[in-house]
Specification:
7-stranded parallel beta sheet; Rossmann fold; 31 helices; 5 domains; 755 residues; 22 strands; Arc Repressor Mutant, subunit A; single chain; 6-stranded parallel beta sheet; alpha/beta
Length: 755
């Protein structure tokens, strides 16, 4: 049997996903591997398939009991003998499992890192044939990662105890470049196949909301998504308990999870959620790492997490089945104070020196700052996340709250220069609150105590008000016009780009969301994607519901989570293909031979009974489209239904009215284009978009010299009608900028004409 036969027989798939085959082939050739793959990309198959082809045992080091249990259940359901060894078992049960493993009963054994140095397990490992050692959630081994676990260092000592070093494979979904290097170094991977397939989860919709009453937002959201499974993350036990009580008082029956509950209560609550008895979980971040529940439709963060790594990992528990799902962060400035308190009072790891602990705390403060910028940026949220993990994302994804908002841009260059003057005057001794209060002319006791009234900057921006000044400062920090110290105090200081504004060769604009009226909510997915079941017509949806009911009944009888039997994606494919016999059922995505033997007949009977064994079309479009399960539609966030505006375009008639001139700057060109669009249906374009396209086409370039950034026209750009011209800043400084001649203007207009 080869890898393709195993993929189909045990897992029910006909093709490998991106990156899987590369890593599998590397392992089968005897090489170590490190795979960085997004949640839901199929990391587990990259070691499970080789494990079935190797002569010996594959040990999988896994951090949480619930994660092991889920994986072993899924393997056993697929007909693969697997076991786990952790503290949930008695010593007799562990001894029995190791005895069976020594006889060759299990090909895959999941084990907690704490077990690796116990006498019984070491004795077993020294005498067993271990073909591969797999490290799951490999970022846990890095001291500089967001989730370092000292127990993972036992893996290195364990390998040194073995007579023969096995192949080592490591996998993670969230690791920056520094953490990736740390994994390779600490584990001692030997010339590994290193593959990063990307961090993007295209089915996830990201949003940052700032509701006045978070509780009301959460309650309304859950009511607008009845029956959907979701997780609400809170920063503290107190806020978890409080929200749980309010949900109960409002008629919602959630599950609850945090470290303050008893072990048995946590277990019962977790099972209520996993088995869909209570579809909503309200919890601290103590919950979730070991949950492989595939049908979580939304994750709401009631408070801002401490780092982008934590946020992406927790938000990534939504949509593991590939279905459109929503990740919503409810932001308030108080979240920063809560997280600073949690960081400062985190119990220190006794294995670290004082210097290492100080460095870790400084890094935690920097992570918190980056997380805060995510909540404040007006640019694409997905691009912000991907850029952080070292992956270049598109400037707009059209599947996040920022990409679906209309922004009003206001030139605030003069105000930004006033802020810079204030920061200079404060000499790097104060943070954003003091700077904003000084510029606003506030008369707080602390400001008067610091003597801020005597500053030249005092009250210079009083017309804006302190909240808007803070927004300006935060955007300047995000865009690199200001910087701050990388500690809990975040003292403001000048940055590399500061001179662009003070020398008059740059322009600073404040992007603020246009306030639009909010129509009634709908119970649709906000992600801008269609659910798999949206491809089904009314008859198809009826059959889909019957198959889900059958799945729930079987799950109840066998005490299994429903998604382990068949995923929603598999049930939809049944409705599309309408299998009436064994061979047809094996063509369904996610149905392998073992699962067919266990569950195939009940589902075939349900399909035959519903259709009268007559083939009919229960889906929209053709079979190929149905197999792809729909495309993006562009709906707004939070389930709020409004007519989504199209990306900027012009009709031929509109383009014919463009007022060509001898020359335009890119922002001027953007303004003229926007005057021609239909504002009710079409979004604005911008000078920044025109510059971006020009650079993509090689018409212009951005260069840096002496700490300054400037644009130049390429030879190709000169041929297209771009040229450099002199401008004069408000301070009278001369500098060069790119102009678009009439030939170039005609080219730009053509870019935006709809075919």
């Amino acid at each position: 049997m080869d890898k393709h036969e195993i993929l189909k027989k045990y897992f029910g798939y006909s093709q490998f996903r991106k990156g899987q085959e590369t890593l599998i082939d590397a392992v089968l050739s005897g090489r170590d591997v490190l795979g960085v793959m997004p949640t839901g990309a199929g990391k587990s198959l990259c070691y499970q398939i080789p494990a079935l082809l190797f002569p010996g045992i594959t040990l999988v080091i896994s951090p949480l009991i619930s994660l092991m249990k889920d994986q072993v259940q899924s393997l056993n359901q697929a007909g693969i003998h697997a076991a786990y060894i952790n503290s949930s078992l008695t010593e007799n049960q562990i001894a029995k499992a190791l005895k069976l493993a020594a006889k060759g009963t299990y090909k895959i054994i999941y084990v907690a890192p704490e077990r690796l140095e116990t006498y019984g397990f070491l004795e077993f490992a020294r005498h067993a044939e271990i073909s591969m050692l797999t490290v799951d959630e490999a970022h846990c081994i890095s001291q500089w990662g967001q989730d370092f676990r000292p127990s993972y260092l036992k893996i290195v000592r364990f390998m040194q105890e073995l007579d023969k070093r096995p192949i080592v494979s490591a996998f993670t979904a969230t690791a920056t470049e520094n953490v990736q290097e740390d994994i390779i170094c600490v584990l001692g991977l030997q010339e590994p196949e290193f593959l990063v397939t990307g961090f993007d989860r295209s089915n996830l919709y990201f949003a940052v909301e700032t509701p006045k009453k978070k509780d009301d937002y959460v309650l309304d959201y859950i009511k607008d998504h009845p029956g959907d499974s979701g997780i609400i993350y809170c920063a503290t036990r107190k806020s978890t308990d409080s929200l749980y009580e309010k949900m109960q008082a409002d008629g919602i029956l959630p599950a609850k999870y945090h470290a303050g509950l008893g072990k048995e209560e946590r277990r019962e609550n977790q099972e209520d959620f996993v088995y869909d008895r209570r579809p909503v979980m309200v919890a601290t971040n103590a919950f979730g790492m070991g949950i492989d529940k595939s049908n979580v439709r939304y994750v709401i963060h009631y408070n801002m997490p401490q780092s982008l790594e934590n946020y992406y990992q927790e938000a990534g528990r939504a949509g593991r089945d590939g279905e459109p799902s929503e990740c919503i962060l409810l932001y308030s400035p108080q979240d920063i104070m809560i997280n600073q308190f949690l960081i400062e009072n985190k119990e220190p790891n006794p294995e670290f020196t004082r210097e290492e602990l100080a460095a870790i705390q400084e890094r935690d403060a920097e992570r918190l700052r980056i997380m805060n910028y995510y909540c404040l940026t007006s640019n694409c949220l997905r691009a912000y996340i991907l850029n952080y993990f070292g992956e270049r994302g598109k400037e707009t994804c059209q599947n996040c709250s920022n990409c679906q908002k209309e922004f009003v841009e206001t030139d605030m260059t003069e105000e930004a220069v006033e802020i810079i003057s204030c920061v200079k005057e404060l000499r790097g001794r104060y943070g954003i609150n003091v700077a904003a209060g000084t510029l606003a002319g506030a008369r707080r006791a602390k400001l008067l105590e610091y003597g801020m009234e005597a500053c030249k900057s005092y009250g210079r921006l009083s017309k804006l008000g302190e909240p808007k000044i803070k927004r300006l400062i935060n955007q300047m920090l995000v865009e690199g016009y200001l910087d701050s110290t990388k500690d809990k105090y975040a003292l403001l200081k000048l940055a590399a780009r500061t001179d662009e504004l003070t020398e008059g060769i740059g322009k600073f604009t404040l992007k603020e969301a246009e306030q639009l009226p909010q129509p009634e909510r709908k119970q649709d997915s906000a992600s801008g994607n269609r659910r798999k079941s949206d491809i089904l017509n009314s008859r198809g949806l009826e059959l889909f519901d019957r198959l889900r009911s059958l799945r729930s009944e079987i799950a109840r009888q066998e005490a299994l989570p429903p998604y382990i039997i068949f995923s929603d994606k598999t049930l939809v494919d049944m409705c599309v293909r309408l299998p009436f016999g064994r061979q047809e059922m094996l063509e369904v995505n996610g149905v392998g031979e073992h699962k067919f033997q266990k569950y195939g007949e009940p589902f075939l009977r349900e399909i035959r009974e519903y259709t009268g064994e007559e083939k009919e079309k229960l889906y929209f479009g053709d079979l190929e489209e149905a197999s792809r399960y729909g495309r993006k539609q562009g709906k707004p966030s939070g389930g709020k239904a409004k007519t989504a505006k199209a990306d900027f375009f012009l009709t031929r008639n509109q383009a014919g009215q463009f007022p060509y001139a001898q020359k335009y700057l890119a922002p001027e060109l953007g303004e003229k284009l926007n005057e021609l669009r239909d504002p009710e249906w079409v979004k604005k374009t911008s000078g920044a978009e025109i510059i971006r396209r020009s650079q993509e086409l090689g018409l212009s370039e951005e260069k840096a010299a002496n700490g300054m950034r400037y644009r130049v026209v390429t030879e190709k750009g000169e041929e297209a009608g771009l040229f450099l011209g002199t401008r004069i800043s408000k301070k009278g400084t001369e500098y060069e900028d790119i102009y678009y001649g009439e030939k170039a203007q005609r080219m730009v207009v053509e870019w935006f004409i709809s075919p």
